[in-house]
Amino acid sequence: MFEIRRYTxxxxxxxxxxxxxxxNATFLFRRxxxxxxxxxxxxxxxxxxxxxxxxxxLPAHLVGDVLCSHxxxxxxxxxxxxxxxxxxxxxxxxQLNPFLRTCGxxxxxxxxxxxxxxxxxxxxxxxxxxxxxxxxxxxxxxxxTIFVQQRQPWxxxxxxxxxxxxxxxxxxxxxxxxxxxxxxLEENLKQRFDAKPVHSLEEMLLLKxxxxxxxxxxxxxxxxxxxxGITFYLTPQVLHGQYSSTNALGKENGAMEAIYQQVMYEDxxxxxxxxxxxxxxxxxxxxxxxxxxHKEGYGGRGVCYDTYEWTL
Length: 312
What we know:
Blueprint: E1 3-6, H1 12-21, H2 31-34, E2 42-43, E3 46-50, E4 53-58, E5 61-63, E6 66-69, E7 79-80, H3 86-102, E8 107-110, H4 124-133, E9 136-147, H5 156-168, E10 171-174, H6 178-193, H7 201-210, E11 215-222, E12 225-234, E13 238-246, H8 248-252, H9 255-267, E14 273-278, E15 280-281, E16 286-287, H10 289-296, E17 301-311
Parallel strand pairs: 6-8, 13-14
Antiparallel strand pairs: 1-3, 2-5, 3-4, 4-7, 5-6, 8-17, 9-14, 9-17, 10-11, 11-12, 12-13, 15-16
Helix pairs in contact: 3-4, 5-9
């Protein structure tokens, strides 16, 4: 039997300590990351105890009478350590649904951690929510990921732009200025999509201050002028490009190619996966063919980001 408790601020240390030992967690589940936008989400995260010991976590929030895990993060889902078994997870979800009903919750939206982020296989939750909860696939998005150690050959146009970057002396700076990059990013998003970054500059600077080893800014310069950059999220298995952008000079002179060459083959060749992120619109139903082709040109191929739901 599990004891299920709702998270409170007093649980922060226990929560973060468990996340640090979990086999399918990333720093996005640390409370300093989850709580930076606490004003936008009604937190309803859960802790599962067995025999007085913390056994699993569920990052979650409420939208009316719907429990979501988690719409404010790239993914959510049950967080487990190596001691948690399939039988444990089945029993956990069997007990979770009656508990949620007592809280007045009528529906669950569930976004599991994609497998590339697992440090050890961790798809017990997908089995359990199907059989114990009657979960159905609500939506499916797709990202582009490269297995770095395979060193897939780049497409001809990427190789050409990399040579251009080398010939022109494009300089790549690790831990570059986020403020300088944000100007390039905001201008590009405004011009191309009439959009803004999900994070404001102030939010990204705050997160960088809390996670200096996990959030890494790479900028590319030509004659000391910034021409592009990528904000990376570093996790044990994945280097994820959270934001990337160039100006006209950067596109012409291989800013992205110079950065990817450095991160993949010089700075992080030991990280198994580089996740370029999704290239879709309309909730994942429409592919941005030009953008996804650009990412596939580096050797990336598809990894699904799924969302499930069930009623109580």
